[in-house]
Amino acid sequence: MHTPVPLGEGVPANTRYAVSVSLPTWQDNVDYELGARRVVDRMVSGYPRFFIAKPIQALVALVKERFALPNETAMIFPSLACAKRCTAFIYDQAPKQRSEELAYELPAPGQVRVVQHVFEPINKRAAALDAVGSVLESPVTIYCVLMPEDLFPLAKQYWQHTGNGISARLADYCLHVVRINEEHEQETKPYSPAARNGAARRGKGSGYHRKPTGPSAVAETLSPETDIEADAYLEERFGRNCEPRHAAAMKAVLRRRIAGVLSKEELKQGAQVERGVAELSSDDVYLMATGASAVFYSHQALLTMRSGKSVCFGFPYTDTLKILQKFGPGAYFLGHGEGSDYERLEEILEQHAQKQDPILAIFTECPSNPLLKTANLPRLRELADKHSVALVVDDTIGSFANINVLEWTDVVVSSLTKVFSGDSNVMGGSIVLNPTRPLYAALRVALGTVYEDLMWCEDAVFMERNSRTFMKRVPAINCNALAVAELLQASDKVAQVRYPKFTSASNYALTMRCNGDAGYGGLLSVEFSGGESASKAFYDNLACFKGPSLGTNFTLASPYTILAHFTELEWAAQYGVRADLVRVSVGMEPQSELLAMFQAALDAIPEKGSEQSQHAV
C-alpha cells in the first residue's frame, strides 16, 4: 500500500523529525536489538526516546569538544532541574546496576557534573532565516551532563524513561545559531590568514563547518542547510503552520483542545470534546515534551505529597513500570490486571494502611499496551477512595475521543505523540487533573513544585497544527481497525486477536463516550497458531510501514515484544506478552485496500500441512 521505506530510514519517509524508523523485516528488529552493524549503521532515525537523533548527536559532539575531559561524554537537557535529576539518577543507580554486563567505576563526588551553555545569535537578522522562520527573542540555554563514557548507559536510561531529553528541533536551532555566529565572526573581522585560521579554530565542533572524525562524526550525515529550508518551506506553505513566536498561544489552544474548551468556530464544525467532568478547564491541563514525561512528572508530583510505593495494575508500556520502580521507593507490579489481581491489590492497600505506610498511587492504562486489556475503573476508584490513594490512568491507546476516564481518576496522562498528532513528526504529552476529586488541590500544588514547560516552541506549533483534525480522524481509524480485527479474528491461522472489543470488553464499555463516533481505537495485537514462524511470515509480507510507535494516520506494525522486552522475553511471557506477538496500529487508508493487504499477509503464512511437507523435503 505504501512505497517501502529502506531499513533505518525515518517513517514517514522524507520527514526530518520522523518519530518512527523503518524495520521492514522480523530479522531487522532482532538484529537491531542485538546491535548488528548491518542495521545499526543504517539508522538515520529512530523513536526519539530510544534513538538519539542526528541533530542531538551533532550538538553533543560540539559540547564534548568544548567542555569534556578525555574519555568523557555528554547528555543534553532543556533545563537545569532535568540535568540535576539525571546526575542524581546516575549516582543512585550506578551501585545498583553494576554487574559483569555493566562494568564501570563508581563515580566519585563531582565526577558527574552539569555545564550550562547559552545560544544567542549575534546577527539576529541572519538567524531569522533559519528553519524556525523567526529568531527567538530570548537566548536558548541547554544543560549538559558530563560523565565518564562508561556511565553513558545510565544517562541513556534516564533519557529514555523520563522523556526529558531535548527535542531534535531544539538541537537544530542551537546548531543553526552556532553556524550564524561563526559566519558573523568571519564577516566582521579583517581578512588575514591568521585571523581566518583562528576563526576556524574557535568555530570547531559546530557540526556544520568542520569535518568530524571518530565515533562522534555524525554531522556529515545531517541534511545541508538548504534541505532544512526546503523542509520549512513545505511545512509553512502547505502545512498551515504558525510561527514559533506564537508558541504560547498555540500551547493555550492545545490545552483548551485537550480539556474540551473549544472556540465557537470549532463547535460549529462538530469538534466538541466532553471529558466527562463539567468543572474541567484548560488550567487543569499541563503540556509535556513527551508522553513518558507525563507519567514521570505525575509520579514526581505525587512523591512530593508523601513518600510511598505505587501499584502498577496491568501490564503497561515498558517505561511506565521502570519509572515507578527506579524513581522513589519502588512499586508493586500486578501484571495481569484482572482476576485475582483485584484481591491482591486490596490486600496491598490494607497492609500498607495498617502499617501507616499508605500506598501512593495506582497506575493503569486504558486500554493497556500491548494486550489491550481494560481495568475495571469503578472498582479501582472505589479502592482508591477507601484508602485515599491517587488513581492515575494513561488513556493514550483509547484516546479521549473514544473514552471518558477522567471522571474515574485523579490524574489522566497521555502521549500526544500518538493519535492526537497522527503525523508522526513531533513528540508531546499531557497531564490532566480532575478538579472534582479530593486530591485535586494538593495535586495542583505538587505539580506546581515540579512542573516545567519543556515543550519546545516549534514542537508546540507542529502539535497544534496536527491535532486540528484529531476528532475527525479517530472515527475513521476506529472503523478501519474494527474491520481489520474482525478479519483477523475469523482466520484459522490466528490464535488470538487482542482488541478492546474482544478483550475486557465490559470494562472498556464502561469508559466509552456516549456518541456515535466513539469506538475501540486503532491498536490491536495478534498472535498466530503457527507461533513465531507464522508471525515472521505475516510481518514480513505485511505491505505497510513497519517500525515503532502507534496512533499514526498510516498503518504501522511492529513485533512489539522484541523491541520493548528483548532482554526480558521470559518475564514478559509470564503476563501473556508473547515474543511472537505482532502489534498493529491501523491507519486511515481505504478500508478495502487495508483488508486486502492483511488478507495477503495471512495468505503468506504457510498452511500447517504444507509447512510440515517443506520440512520433510
Automatic annotation (TrEMBL):
Q: What class of enzyme is it?
A: transferase
Name under which the protein is recorded = Cystathionine gamma-synthase
Question: Which cofactors is this protein said to need?
Answer: pyridoxal 5'-phosphate
Q: Name the Gene3D superfamilies on file.
A: Aspartate Aminotransferase, domain 1, Type I PLP-dependent aspartate aminotransferase-like (Major domain)
According to its UniProt record, the EC number is 2.5.1.48
In Gene Ontology terms, what is one molecular function of this protein? cystathionine gamma-synthase activity
**Signal sequence coordinates:** none
Source organism of the structure:
Coemansia thaxteri
Region (Disordered): which ranges?
185-219
Q: Which PANTHER family does the entry link to?
A: CYSTATHIONINE GAMMA-SYNTHASE-RELATED (PTHR42699:SF1), PTHR42699
GO biological process annotation, one example: transsulfuration
Name the keywords, alphabetized: Pyridoxal phosphate, Transferase
Give me the stretches of Basic residues compositional bias: 199-212
So which domain of life are we looking at? Eukaryota
